[in-house]
């Protein structure tokens, strides 16, 4: 009995007639029943395992590769870039927030900002005297 057929039986994808024949064979052959028992335990362990430990989109990439008729390297590369880009965006946004908070904290005691934009980005306070000074050559 080949492993592929046994695995299909364990997964429940074997046709009913073949499954019934295999069940009769399992009743007569203890070694075969032991092989199926090991396959069931491995299948249950893999089914219960947490897939999120392998990183984002791991399960989707593996399932896409298993279900694909042919290997599509471009799609896999795109998925990898999407995962990387999502991480880069999060890191970039966190860096912007951290830098803005540092500027606000450092320059807050020097001047009171007139708007939240000046405060958030650490911009100098603009009043009429500063604007006129900048306008004169």
Keywords:
73% helix; 0% strand; mainly alpha
Characterise the protein shown here.
- The chain has 137 residues and is mainly α.
- Helices cover 73% and strands 0% of the residues.
- It contains 7 helices and no strands.
- It has helices at residues 3-11, 16-28, 30-48, 58-67, 73-107, 116-121, 128-135.
- Helix 1 crosses helix 3 (30-48) and helix 2 packs across helix 3.
- The longest helix has 35 residues, at 73-107.
- The radius of gyration is 31 Å and the shape is rod-shaped.
- The mean pLDDT is 78.
Mean pLDDT: 78
| Biggest β-sheet strands, sense, barrel | none
Structural class: mainly alpha
Helix content: over 70%
| Weakly predicted, low-confidence segments | none
| Count of individual beta strands | 0
């Amino acid at each position: 009995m080949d492993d592929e057929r046994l695995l299909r039986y364990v997964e429940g994808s074997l046709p009913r007639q073949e499954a019934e024949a295999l069940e009769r064979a399992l009743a007569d052959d203890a070694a075969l029943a032991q092989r199926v028992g090991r396959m069931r335990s491995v299948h249950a362990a893999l089914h219960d395992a947490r897939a999120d430990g392998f990183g984002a989109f791991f399960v989707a990439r593996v399932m896409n590769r298993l279900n694909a008729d042919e290997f599509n390297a471009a799609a896999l590369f795109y998925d990898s870039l999407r995962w990387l880009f999502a991480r880069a965006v999060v890191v970039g946004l966190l860096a912007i927030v951290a830098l803005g908070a540092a500027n606000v904290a450092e320059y807050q005691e020097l001047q009171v900002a007139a708007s939240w934009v000046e405060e958030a980005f650490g911009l100098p306070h603009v009043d009429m005297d500063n604007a006129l000074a900048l306008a004169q050559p």
